[in-house]
Design goal:
With 371 residues, the chain is of the alpha+beta class. 60% of the residues lie in helices and 12% in strands.
């Protein structure tokens, strides 16, 4: 990992409730154990805080040398990680021993740990006229060596666990991305199939109109090919695709199709999944306006919704039957919203209101998170 990646990983580690829960439990259990063994209850000084400091170091900082590579690799190889972990952890252990005055939980000498805490480091202990046996240099060296070994081993285990979790997350995201891509690829031929079906209806009745529709169909195909490999489009680009589709339907239905746009141009730069609006428009024409002899009215709206946005397609005509609710386009849309992190139950609604059928998509923050 590079420095910025390690920083993000460390911040994530510190934000985990489990990390702070483990630190809190370790510190409390150690202090309670000392008190239960007959030692005086430690005041809120370095002696009581020492186990929390050691737990923080072991759980948060010890994995760092195992993660540093300076490149895109997720972690250091075992030999390199060991060479980096030993000096890093040795420095941290000596620094903590100096600051805490050999304040490792469990340093149970005749005077507990209080004599060496906060303000009297190792230098202060060497200046004592009579040094307790537990503070002898060889005892401190053994203590430091034990801390060092534990930090090196625990850091390696934690770094390896985090790499495994990251690999699993990447695999899940890759699977979701593949599924999302498959759904998007399913939509492209579905749109073209319905458009070609409309052209076929016009060939006998209006050959000249069918020729114009074929030109628009070529433009629609060009848009679908241009955006086929993308996971998101701006709303301006999404509107272009819908306008191309509506141009064909307008030639086919003529005055039977009345189109009205209520579009906030300030939201044009927001990005959304491709073909988010088109299935709603297609559903409104196919199941609502198209079957009616008199046709109907289609209203397409884009407006702010909190910090996000709201897309609405409303149409007159027939109310949506079960086939409209379960159409390929709408099922595809709901599944893509779910894969992108939005809740289809709350982000998408389709209902009848008087003479109007309304379909609404609400995306907080401008759109669901990309996979």
């Amino acid at each position: 990992m590079k420095a910025d990646q390690i920083y993000r990983t460390t911040v994530q580690r510190m934000r985990r409730p489990l990390t702070w829960g483990a630190i809190l439990v370790f510190g409390l259990l150690w202090n309670v154990t000392r008190w239960a063994l007959g030692h005086e209850s430690p005041p809120l000084d370095g002696e009581a805080l020492a186990p929390f400091a050691w737990a923080l170091f072991f759980l948060v900082l010890s994995p760092l040398p195992w993660q540093w590579t300076g490149g895109p690799e997720p972690g250091a190889r075992p030999f390199r990680g060991l060479l980096q972990a030993i000096p890093f952890n040795a420095f941290c252990v000596l620094l903590l021993l100096e600051v805490l005055g050999a304040g490792m939980p469990g340093h149970l000498g005749p005077h507990g740990m209080g004599r060496g805490m906060m303000g009297r480091g190792m230098h202060g202990m060497h200046a004592m006229p009579e040094m307790p046996d537990c503070f002898q240099p060889h005892r401190l060296l053994l203590l430091a060596a034990a801390f060092l070994c534990f930090a090196v081993l625990l850091g390696g285990v934690l770094a390896r666990m985090e790499r495994a979790e990251e690999s699993e997350d990447l695999a899940v995201k890759a699977a979701a991305q593949a599924r999302l891509k498959a759904l998007q690829n399913q939509m492209n031929p579905h749109v073209l199939f319905n458009a070609i079906s409309g052209v076929a209806e016009m060939v006998r009745e209006d050959p000249a109109g069918a020729e114009k529709v074929l030109v628009d169909l070529a433009g629609l195909l060009r848009h679908l090919l241009d955006h086929g490999d993308r996971t998101s489009l701006t709303l301006a680009q999404e509107r272009q695709v819908v306008e191309q589709y509506l141009a064909m339907e307008q030639l086919r239905l003529g005055r039977r199709l009345q189109i009205h746009w209520s579009w906030d141009p300030d939201l044009d730069a927001r990005e959304v999944p491709p073909l988010l609006l088109q299935p709603l428009v297609e559903n409104a024409i196919k199941h609502g306006i198209g079957p009616e002899r008199a046709g109907g009215e289609l209203r397409i709206s884009l407006r702010p919704w909190g910090r996000g946005l709201e897309l609405e397609v409303a149409n007159t005509g027939r109310s949506p039957a079960g086939g409209a609710q379960d159409s390929i386009g709408l099922r595809n849309l709901k599944e893509r919203l779910a894969l992108l992190g939005a809740d289809p139950a709350s982000s998408f609604r389709l209902w009848r209101e008087g003479d109007w059928t309304r379909a609404v998509i609400q995306l907080p923050g401008g759109g669901p998170a990309h996979v």
